[in-house]
C-alpha cells in the first residue's frame, strides 16, 4: 500500500519540475565543492585560532547547504501534504534501514559529531592505532592525515565503540613530550634546570604556556619527560626533534650519560 502511495506521489512530477530540482542540486553541489576547497586553502594561510575556526566551519556549512537543498527540492517535486511526506519518508526509512544500516549509523554519528564536536578540522586525534590531523569531516567519516602523510578515513561510527584522544581539542595548544633516558648517577636538580632552559630557549616554544619537567626513577635509570607547547600544533614533530637534539647536546656537555637501551623489568 505504501509503495503505491509513493508511486502515485512521484507520478505527478513533470519534466520542468525535475529539471528545476536538478538545477538546485547542481548549484548546491557547486557550493559544497567551493566550500570544501576554498576555505581549507584560505585556512592554510592562517595560523592559530582563526585557522581552526575556519576549518571547523566547513562541515557545518556543508550540512546547512544540504539541509537547505532538501527544503527547496522537496516542495518542487512533491506537494508538501502530510500524506505525501509520510509516504516518502516512510519508504525512505525502510530502504535505508535494511540496505544501508551501517552507513546510516555513520551518518547519525556524523550529526552527533557536528553537535558534540569531539573533533574538528585542525584537531590532532588518536583513534585506535592511527594518529593525525583532521583534514575534513564528511557526512560518513572524518579524514585525517598521519605524520607519514597517509590519508586515513575514520568512520564516525567509531564514536560508538572506540576510545578517541584529542590532542588540542579545538584550540591551537598541543602539549609535546620529549623523553630522556639517563643513567642514575647525576645531579637531578641540575638536569631539571637544564631541560627547562632547553624548552625556554627553543625558537618553537610558547614560552607563555607552562613548561614542566617530570622525572621518574626506573629500574634501569632515570626517565625525564620535558613537557611544553609548540607555537603551532602542526610543528609538533619538528618541535620534539628540536627539544631532543638540543637537550642531548646540553646534557652531554655536562657529562650526563644516556641509557642506550632501557632494560625492562622481568
General description of the model:
- The chain has about 270 residues and is of the alpha+beta class.
- It folds into three domains: about 1-100, no CATH class; about 125-165, SH3 type barrels (Roll); about 175-255, Alpha-Beta Plaits (2-Layer Sandwich).
- The protein is about 50% helix and about 20% strand.
- Strands 4-3-2-1-5 form a five-stranded antiparallel sheet.
- The longest helix is centred in the first third of the chain and has 30 residues, at about 50-75.
- The radius of gyration is 27 Å and the shape is elongated.
- It is a multi-pass membrane protein.
- Homoheptamer.
- InterPro entries: LSM_dom_sf, MscS_archaea/bacteria_type, MscS_beta-dom_sf, MscS_channel_2nd.
Give structural attributes:
about 270 residues, alpha+beta, SH3 type barrels, Alpha-Beta Plaits, five-stranded antiparallel β-sheet, 8 strands
Number of domains: 3
Tell me the β content.
Answer: 15-25%
Radius of gyration of CA atoms, rounded to a whole number: 27 Å
The number of E-state strands comes to: 8
Question: Helical stretch count?
Answer: 8
Q: From N to C, what is the helix and strand string?
A: HHHHHEEEEHEEHEEH
Shape: elongated
Major beta sheet summary: 5 strands, antiparallel
Q: Largest beta sheet: what is the strand line-up?
A: 4-3-2-1-5
As a percent range, the share of helical residues equals 40-55%
Amino-to-carboxy terminus distance? 71 Å
User: Which structural category do the helix and sheet elements fall into?
Assistant: alpha+beta
Uncertain spans, ≥5 residues at pLDDT below 50? none
Q: Could you tell me the mean pLDDT?
A: 79
Amino acid at each position: 500500500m505504501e509503495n503505491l502511495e509513493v508511486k502515485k506521489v512521484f507520478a505527478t512530477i513533470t519534466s520542468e519540475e525535475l529539471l528545476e530540482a536538478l538545477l538546485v542540486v547542481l548549484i548546491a553541489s557547486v557550493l559544497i565543492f567551493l566550500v570544501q576547497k576554498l576555505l581549507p586553502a584560505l585556512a592554510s594561510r592562517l595560523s592559530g585560532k582563526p585557522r581552526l575556526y575556519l576549518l571547523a566551519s566547513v562541515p557545518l556549512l556543508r550540512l546547512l547547504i544540504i539541509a537547505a537543498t532538501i527544503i527547496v527540492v522537496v516542495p518542487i517535486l512533491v506537494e508538501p501534504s502530510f500524506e505525501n511526506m509520510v509516504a516518502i519518508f516512510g519508504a525512505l526509512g525502510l530502504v535505508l534501514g535494511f540496505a544501508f544500516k551501517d552507513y546510516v549509523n555513520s551518518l547519525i554519528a556524523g550529526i552527533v559529531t557536528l553537535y558534540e564536536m569531539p573533533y574538528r578540522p585542525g584537531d590532532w586525534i588518536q583513534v585506535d592505532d592511527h594518529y593525525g590531523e583532521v583534514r575534513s569531516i564528511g557526512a560518513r567519516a572524518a579524514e585525517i592525515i598521519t605524520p607519514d602523510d597517509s590519508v586515513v578515513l575514520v568512520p564516525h561510527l567509531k564514536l560508538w565503540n572506540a576510545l578517541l584522544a584529542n590532542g588540542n581539542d579545538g584550540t591551537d595548544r598541543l602539549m609535546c613530550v620529549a623523553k630522556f633516558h639517563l643513567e642514575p648517577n647525576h645531579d637531578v636538580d641540575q638536569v631539571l634546570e637544564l631541560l627547562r632552559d632547553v624548552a625556554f630557549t627553543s625558537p618553537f616554544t610558547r614560552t607563555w604556556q607552562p613548561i614542566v619537567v617530570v622525572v621518574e626513577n626506573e629500574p634501569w635509570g632515570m626517565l625525564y619527560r620535558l613537557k611544553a607547547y609548540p607555537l603551532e600544533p602542526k610543528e609538533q614533530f619538528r618541535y620534539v626533534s628540536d627539544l631532543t637534539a638540543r637537550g642531548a647536546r646540553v646534557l652531554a656537555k655536562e657529562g650526563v650519560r644516556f641509557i642506550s637501551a632501557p632494560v625492562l623489568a622481568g
